[in-house]
Amino acid sequence: MRAPHAPSFYAATADAELAFPPLEGDTRADVAIVGGGYTGLSAALHLAEAGVDVVLLEAERVGWGASGRNGGQLHTGQRRDQDWLEARLGLAPARALWTMAEEAKALVHDLIARHGIDAEWRPGLVEAVHKRRMVPHERAYAERLARDYGYRDAEWLEPDRLAAMIGTDAYFGGRLDRGAGHLHPLKFAQGLARAAAKAGARLHEGTRVRRLATGAKPTLETARGRVTADIVVLAGNGYLDGIDGTVEARVLPIKNFILTTEPIGAGAAGGLLPGGEAVSDSRFVVYYWRPTADGRLLFGGGETYSRTDPRDLFAFVRRHLLRIYPGLADTPISHAWGGTLAVTVKRLPYIRRARPGVYVASGYSGQGVALAPYGGKILAEAIRGDPARLDTFAALPAPAFPGGTLLRYPALVAGMTWYALRDRI
């Protein structure tokens, strides 16, 4: 029997019938891809459109991981802002990363339009500032983007205007980004899967890769067959444990959690977020929320660093929601779910050729709606002989997490606990 999608509001409102067969037996391909999320699907689509024979293996369903369970927010820039990038990487690399981040946003829009994907796109995203002392820097940053990067879609919001837009006075100002926005992430992933299959990519669900064997040709071994290819792409993000030690040391899975209310008129006149914008805030452990197409409030908050979810997901996320919207204490919650994303030490994506014949793109650190489809595209470009964009990402620092695979989780817990404390003081 075909496994269902992981339960979520997205799974309940996407195409439950979309399905691809599991791999049966051995096969050969030019390129074999591990992972059916945005990265893998985008790589498969762009390779297949170029006439490359490509096989994609997904352990569960396409979009089953972070690609189908995230907050749906399309942000501007990298996970680190331009000030951070310039200070640590230099002006030229920082500008190159800005340009590619803008290309990544444009790619999402192009994919939606070119393939007729009903992704429920809605423009507008507010970055809300949760500490008064951060206001001068954040206000100046909006001005700097316009002055130094020619980006004029960002506008500073004073507290009164911000409160009217988002329905809470919990913040001290914010930045409205009209060049960003939000979408239904699982519908977007399913649209990419349909487009990749139509272009000729062979997609297989329910096919977990047990081992990547290296030799004359890399081979992906599964329970029911093998794929031998000239090139393997590792696009499993937070779900690559046990497949490649080099990637596993540098890309760490963490869990994040989301809920949706019952429909409350969010995103419409008279309701919360009447302009329809998404919101994320300046916490290191970010709060993020947005209206859905049917007027629910979708809210994400709280992370864990264990392999198990909290026993009561509804209560776990609700307590974060009520810190921002205490008036929703009696509002019914329709769905609550968790998902695994992946972070790197520097919060910069890990995109590169890991070794001859093996490419990887993962570790988007919460910026995957924009960067993951782009990561798949630049892998496809590199495989076809144009590594320029890949080389820019490959030059980024990518240290291993301290302590190796055994101690990296305790080290992360200590670090994230410290940052969570800083968020509160």
UniProtKB/TrEMBL annotation:
Keywords from the UniProt entry: Oxidoreductase
InterPro entries, alphabetized: FAD-dep_OxRdtase, FAD/NAD-bd_sf
Keyword Oxidoreductase in annotation: yes
SUPFAM superfamilies (alphabetical): FAD/NAD(P)-binding domain
Enzyme kind, highest EC tier: oxidoreductase
GO cellular-component term (any): cytoplasm
Occurrences of domain FAD dependent oxidoreductase (ranges): 30-381
Pfam families for this protein: DAO
Source organism, top-level taxon: Bacteria
The protein's Enzyme Commission number: 1.4.3.-
Keyword Oxidoreductase: yes
PANTHER family on file: FAD DEPENDENT OXIDOREDUCTASE DOMAIN-CONTAINING PROTEIN, SARCOSINE DEHYDROGENASE-RELATED
Name of the featured protein: Gamma-glutamylputrescine oxidase
Organism: Prosthecomicrobium pneumaticum
